[in-house]
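Two entries, shown back to back:
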Amino acid sequence: MRFILVLLTALAVSASAADLQIVRPQVSQEEGGAPDPPGYSHIPGETLFFTCRIANFTRSAESKIHVAYSIQAFDPKGVALDPIYTNEFVDEVGPQDKQWMPKIQTEVSIPPLALPGAYKIVVKAEDLLAHTTAQVDVPFEVRGHSIEPSDKLTIQNFRFFYGENDPQPMPKPVYHPGQGVWVKMDITGFAYGPGNKIDVSYQTSFLNATGKLLWTQPEPAVEQTESFYPKRYIPAEFGVTLDKNIKPGVYTIQVQVKDAVGSQSYEGKETFTVE
C-alpha cells in the first residue's frame, strides 16, 4: 500500500509540474492600477508596477508548495537595468485553496537617461518540488531622447535656446545684444571603468568672429559617477548673457571635453549670430 501511495504521488507531481506556468503578466503605471493600454510607452525615470501569477504548481503529500522565482528587466541591447530580484513561495495550500495562485509583484525602475526602444521584463519560476521551470518575457516600450551610438568621445544634439526652460530649441540661433544664450548638448562615447564608472569633464568658451576668447568657464563641469546600469550619455547645458554693447556678427561656442577613464578628449564648436 505504501508503494502505491508513493507511486501515485510521484505521478501527480510529474503531471502537475509539466504544466508549470507564469500567467496574467501585467505592467501598470501605478500600484494596483489597470494594465498598460496597447501601444503605451513609458518615459525614462518612471517606475513600473509589475504583477503576475504562478499556475499549475505542485503540491506535496503534505499540501505544501515551494516555488522560487526571479525578475529582471533588460534594455533593447539585453543589458540589465537593475540587479536580479529573487524570492520564493513556501506555503501550505489547503483544499479550500484549490483555485489559488501565488502572486508575484514588484517594481521596475527605468533609468533616468534610458534610451528609447523595446525593453522587457524576464520572469523565471522553478517548482522546487518537481524540479521544473517556466519563463515569460513581458515587453514594454520606452520613449525618450535618442542618441546615436559612438565608439569615441563626441558631442551630439547641440541645441540653442533663449532660456533654460524653453521646450523647443531655436530653428536658427539668432540673438540680440543683452539677451541670454542657452545651450544644451549630449556627451557620449566615453569609456567605463569598474562598476560602470565614468569621469567626464567639459569646459565651455565664447569666441568672437576672429577667434578671440571673450569668456570661458572658470572651472570645468565634472561628471564622476558609478552605477549598476551604464549611463549612455551625459546631458550638459550652460548659459551666458550677451553684453548690451556686443557687436553684431557671428560668434562661436567652443566646448572642450575630457574623458579621464578612456584618456580621450574632444573639442566641439557651434556658431550663432548676433544682430
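entry 2 starts here
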Amino acid sequence: MPSRFAKRVLDVTLSLAALILLCPVLLVVGMAVWATLGSPVLFRQIRPGLGGEPFVMHKFRTMRDDHDEHGVLLPDEVRLGRFGRFLRMTSLDELPELWNVLVGDMSLVGPRPLLMKYLPLYTEEQRRRHEVRPGITGWAQVNGRNDVSWERRFELDTWYVDHRSLWLDFRILWMTMVRVLRAEGVSRAGHVSTEPFTGDRQ
C-alpha cells in the first residue's frame, strides 16, 4: 500500500506535466465546446471526495441546455449531440479533472466521484470507497467502466481500496489508455448516461 505522500507526489507530478503538455488540446476542446454548445464551457458539479467531503469537480460540457415548453430539461439522449458523444467516447471531457488532481481534490487513480445524493444509499461496505481520494480513472473503469452493474462497480472500488499500490496505479493508467483508444464501456447498451443508483440491490 503506497504512502499518501508517495501517491500525492505521483499525482502532482503527472497531473502538472499533463496539464502543460495538453494545454493546446485543452484550448482547442474548450473553443470547440464554446462554438458548439455555447457558454459555460465547463460543467461544474459538487461531488464527494475523500471521506465524503464535497468538492467542485470540473469537466468539459457535453450537453445542450434544451428545455421543453414548461422549462423542464429535455432527456439526456436529446441534449447529447454528436459532438458531446465524441467528447465522452474519447474521454476528452474528463481532461479538466487534471486540475482537481493538482489541487488535491482528486487522484489520478481511485474510485470515480459519484453524486452527493448517493451517500445515504451506500451500505457500510460500499461507503469504504471514500477511504481514498476519488480518481479520474480507477479499477472499476478498466474493468467495465459504465457497462457493469452498480453492485459490481462498488465491489471493484473496494477491492482497489484494499489492494492499492503505486504499481497497481501505473497498471490502471496503462489499461485506461488502452480502453480510451478502444472507446470501451463508455455507457451501458441503450443508455447515453449512467443509470441512477437507487440502492444496494443493482
